[in-house]
Amino acid sequence: xxxxRRVSRVxxxxxxxxxxxxxxxxxxxxxxxxxxxxxxxNVSGDLQHAKIYVSIYGTDEAKExxxxxxxxxxxxxxxxxxxxxxxxxTPEVIFLEDRSIERGNRVLxxxxxxxxxxxxxxETQGEGE
Length: 129
Description:
By secondary structure, the chain is α+β, with helices and mostly antiparallel strands. It is built from four helices and three strands. The mean pLDDT is about 85.
């Protein structure tokens, strides 16, 4: 079992290397259809599995294509990680879509909508007094 510090260091290394691969290494055209960025990497305590969270900007079909391209590139990504990061065993790689940015934008827009609906109500209360 690796220490928490080692697990977080390996996660950061994987995040950096996969980000570089997205820019220069992965040749699949489907990966380039949407703008992709690695938002987080979770590595298991035994360093055997790595969940790579990616944020994809674009239409829904571009997101689906990009995820399909990333799924097909997992073997390449794992072999590249094995050569770039010196570990006893290279972790299994799983790509997951991170929709937290979309959820955050939706929450902010809902809060703005509520705020704009409440303003006229408060203004009318102040005038009647």
